[in-house]
Structures are given as C-alpha cells and as structure tokens.
Model the fold of this input.
Amino acid sequence: MQWFRQENREKSDDTRRVYAMYELAYTCVDFAAAASFLVGSILFFWNSLETTAIWFFVVGSALFAAKPTIRFAREIKLASMGDEKDLAKRYGG
Done:
C-alpha cells in the first residue's frame, strides 16, 4: 500500500473516521501554533514580556513540528487498517 493516497482514506467507514479525527487534530494544532506565534509577536511590543514572547515562539515552533508527525501517524494508522485479508494469505492461514 502506498502512503498519502486518497484511496487509503476511502476504504471504509472506519478509515474515513480515522482520517477525519487526524485531520481535526492537525487543524487544532495548526490553529494553536498560529495563535502562539501571534501572541508571541504581540508580546514583543513590551520589553518586560520578552521572555514570555520567546516561550510562545518555542511552543508555536513545537506545534508546527507536530504537524508532520500527526500526518505520518495518520498514514501509519491507515496503512495498518484493513490488512486482515492479506495477513491470512501471507502467513498461510
């Protein structure tokens, strides 16, 4: 099975549900990362809040790094679903 293909998410109701859950997580992380960068940018207007602003940028960067991890985890999950028929053939069952 090839990864990141449209047909992988369309195999069954279960794969569509898994795909939707991972997309929701991806979107939430995306919004949180953008909000962290926005808040961090605003906080840089005050010198006394510079350390806090830096932490918002660090958190935002970590969230942006989590995005490809979510996509990769989704593909691993989708790849592992619906493989029962092939397993029986491969292992002589």
